[in-house]
C-alpha cells in the first residue's frame, strides 16, 4: 500500500509541475539536446588539448608515452573545469533566480535506504557487469581482427602508463570517475529524470558510451545502466564509489588470470541476481514513470549530430 501511494504521489507531483508535455520551457527533446551539447563542448575542449600538446611538442624528440602523459595531465584540468561549469549551469537553470520554466531537475528525489546487504548486492552487480564488459570487449576485439583490422584498444596504453605514473592513475581511477558521475548521473540524469527515470537512466547511459568514442568501450553502456540505477534508487555518492572501484579494478585486470575473472564474475552474477530479487520487494520508492513517447527526444538534432560524430570516430579508429 505504501509503495503504491508513493508512486502515485510522485506521478501527481511531476504532472502538476508541467511534465509530460503539459508545461512549457524545457521539453524532453530540448533537455536531450542540451545534454548532447554538454558532451560536444567537453569533446571539443579535450580535443583542443591534443592540438595544444602537438604544438608544444612539435620539433622535439618526444616519444608517444611522453605525449600521452602531457595530454592526460592537461585533459584532467580541462575536464574538471568543464564539468564544474556544466554542473553550475544546470543548478542555476533549475534553482536560480531566472529558473527555467518546465525545468524540474531540482525536483525532490525519493531514495531507498542503503544497507549492508544492498551494498553487497551492488558490489556483486558491479563484478557481474565487469565480467560482461570483459566478455563483450573480447568479442569486439575478435571481430575487429577477424575483419582484417589491426586496430587496438587505445585505453590499453593509458592503463599501462597508469601503473607507473601517479597522475595518470589519479585521473583514470579518481578524477575521471568523479567528473563523469557528476556530469552523467548528476547534471544529465538529474535533468532527464523528470521525464521518466528509466528514460533518464537509458539516455544518460547511451551518452556515457558515446562519450568514450571507442569501439572497444561501447559496452560501458552496461556500467552506465548500473550506475544510473544506483543513483536513482540510492544516491549518486554510491555511484561515484562504484565507478572508482570499477576503474581501479580495471587497471589491475591485466595482472589477474582469465580463469579467475570468469569464476569470480560468474559467482557474482548469480549472487547479484539472487540479492536483487530478494531486495526488490522491499523498495520503498517507485520509479517516476516515463512520459508518453519520450524516446522521440532522441531525434534532437544535437543528439543525432553527436551520434554521427561518434560513429565516424569509431570507424576511423578501425580503418586507420
TrEMBL record:
Domain of life assignment: Bacteria
GO biological process: CAAX-box protein maturation; proteolysis
Bilayer-spanning residue ranges: 36-58, 70-92, 113-132, 166-183, 195-212, 259-279, 299-319
InterPro entries reported in the protein's UniProt record: CAAX_protease, Rce1/LyrA-like_dom
Entry keyword set: Hydrolase, Membrane, Protease, Transmembrane, Transmembrane helix
Entry annotated with the keyword Transmembrane: yes
Domain CAAX prenyl protease 2/Lysostaphin resistance protein A-like: 163-249
Record keyword Protease present: yes
Pfam families from the UniProt entry: Rce1-like
GO molecular function: endopeptidase activity
PANTHER family per record: CAAX AMINO TERMINAL PROTEASE FAMILY PROTEIN, SLR1288 PROTEIN
Name of the protein in its database record: CAAX amino terminal protease
Species assigned in the record: Bifidobacterium bohemicum DSM 22767
Amino acid at each position: 500500500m505504501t509503495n503504491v501511494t508513493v508512486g502515485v504521489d510522485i506521478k501527481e507531483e511531476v504532472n502538476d509541475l508541467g511534465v509530460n508535455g503539459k508545461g512549457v520551457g524545457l521539453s524532453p527533446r530540448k533537455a536531450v539536446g542540451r545534454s548532447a551539447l554538454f558532451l560536444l563542448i567537453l569533446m571539443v575542449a579535450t580535443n583542443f588539448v591534443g592540438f595544444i600538446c602537438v604544438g608544444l611538442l612539435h620539433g622535439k624528440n618526444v616519444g608517444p608515452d611522453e605525449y600521452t602523459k602531457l595530454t592526460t595531465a592537461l585533459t584532467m584540468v580541462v575536464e574538471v573545469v568543464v564539468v564544474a561549469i556544466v554542473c553550475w549551469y544546470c543548478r542555476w537553470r533549475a534553482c536560480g533566480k531566472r529558473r527555467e520554466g518546465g525545468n524540474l531537475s531540482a525536483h525532490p528525489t525519493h531514495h531507498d535506504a542503503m544497507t549492508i546487504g544492498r551494498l553487497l548486492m551492488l558490489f556483486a552487480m558491479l563484478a557481474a557487469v565487469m565480467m560482461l564488459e570483459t566478455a563483450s570487449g573480447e568479442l569486439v576485439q575478435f571481430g575487429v581482427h577477424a575483419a582484417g583490422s589491426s586496430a587496438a584498444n587505445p585505453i590499453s596504453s593509458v592503463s599501462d602508463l597508469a601503473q607507473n605514473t601517479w597522475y595518470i592513475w589519479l585521473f583514470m581511477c579518481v578524477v575521471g570517475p568523479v567528473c563523469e558521475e557528476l556530469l552523467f548521473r548528476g547534471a544529465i540524469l538529474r535533468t532527464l529524470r523528470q521525464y521518466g527515470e528509466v528514460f533518464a537512466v537509458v539516455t544518460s547511459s547511451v551518452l556515457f558510451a558515446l562519450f568514450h568514442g571507442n569501439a572497444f568501450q561501447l559496452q560501458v553502456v552496461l556500467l552506465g545502466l548500473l550506475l544510473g540505477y544506483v543513483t536513482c534508487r540510492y544516491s549518486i555518492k554510491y555511484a561515484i564509489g562504484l565507478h572508482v572501484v570499477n576503474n581501479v579494478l580495471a587497471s589491475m585486470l591485466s595482472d589477474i588470470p582469465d580463469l579467475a575473472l570468469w569464476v569470480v564474475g560468474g559467482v557474482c552474477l548469480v549472487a547479484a541476481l539472487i540479492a536483487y530479487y530478494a531486495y526488490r520487494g522491499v523498495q520503498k520508492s517507485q520509479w517516476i514513470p516515463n512520459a508518453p513517447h519520450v524516446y522521440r527526444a532522441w531525434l534532437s538534432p544535437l543528439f543525432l549530430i553527436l551520434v554521427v560524430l561518434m560513429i565516424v570516430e569509431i570507424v576511423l579508429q578501425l580503418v586507420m
